[in-house]
Design a protein that fits this description.
Blueprint lengths: L2 E2 L1 E4 L8 H12 L10 H6 L5 H11 L5 H19 L10 H10 L4 E4 L4 H10 L8 E3 L12 H10 L6 E5 L2 H9 L4 E3 L8 H4 L4 E2 L3 H11 L1 E2 L1
Parallel strand pairs: 1-8, 2-3, 2-5, 3-4, 5-6, 6-7
């Protein structure tokens, strides 16, 4: 049995449905730029891709667009998404409150390690009254190397001051899981839009369908202080 004494959480796609938000905005705006058949399957192909990389991808996939068109499309999507993120108005994922309350009731400290920006993370937490559950936020703003590099995870570990074997990290993507695995932190993965690769699956503590399932797994198979 593993004693869990601290937890690290990703944000996008795990606690909040931000990937679906971006996907829906892309699908809505694409026809305005003459882009047809932009659907969820297309969006999934590039989940986790940076805006810089998307410029080249879109120019290759939609050669009828000018560089200016591609730039305007990406900026328009980001602007609309940020209008939601700035006020925290993003759908919460199933099981988020339940698993956070579970850790809170066990006096187990939780921190965030996310590639999003601190201001947007804080807005979403505040909007859903989840800020009380976290002792610290580590974001894109705090590191030179975002996930899948382990820098952010190691910062969270150092803050908690707990042996890595007694921690658990929650992620929804392979990028995040790789960061945890590289940092030698046990990771539970709750896939969002993309399935878990076999390589990743073999190195995670558990793959769960939702955070509710993760809570059930921990409450029935793990010891706490």
């Amino acid at each position: 049995m593993r004693e869990i004494r601290g937890a690290i959480f990703d944000v996008d796609g795990l606690l909040f449905n931000t990937e679906q938000l971006y996907c829906d905005i892309c699908i809505e705006l694409a026809p305005q730029y003459g882009i047809e058949n932009y659907n969820q399957d297309y969006y999934k192909k590039y989940v986790g891709t940076s805006n810089k990389a998307l410029y080249e991808i879109y120019q290759n996939d939609f050669p009828f667009l000018s560089i200016e068109d591609v730039s305007n499309f990406i900026r328009a999507v980001q602007k609309i998404a940020e209008s939601y993120l700035e006020v925290g108005n993003v759908e919460i994922k199933a099981g988020t409150k339940e698993i956070l309350e579970f850790f809170y009731s066990q006096n187990i400290p939780c921190v965030i390690a996310s590639n999003n920006q601190t201001k947007f993370i804080e807005s979403m937490l505040d909007h859903h009254n989840l800020d009380i559950y976290f002792q610290k936020i580590y974001s894109f703003d705090d590191v030179e190397n975002p996930k899948p590099h382990p820098e952010m995870v190691n910062k969270a570990v150092n803050f908690l001051g707990i042996d890595k074997k007694s921690l658990v990290m929650f992620e929804d993507s392979s990028h995040g899981a790789i960061a945890a695995i590289t940092a030698n932190v046990p990771v539970i993965i709750v896939p969002d839009m993309l399935p878990v690769s076999e390589e990743i699956r073999g190195n995670v503590l558990k793959e769960c369908e939702s955070l509710l399932d993760a809570k059930e797994f921990l409450s029935t198979t793990h010891l706490f202080r």
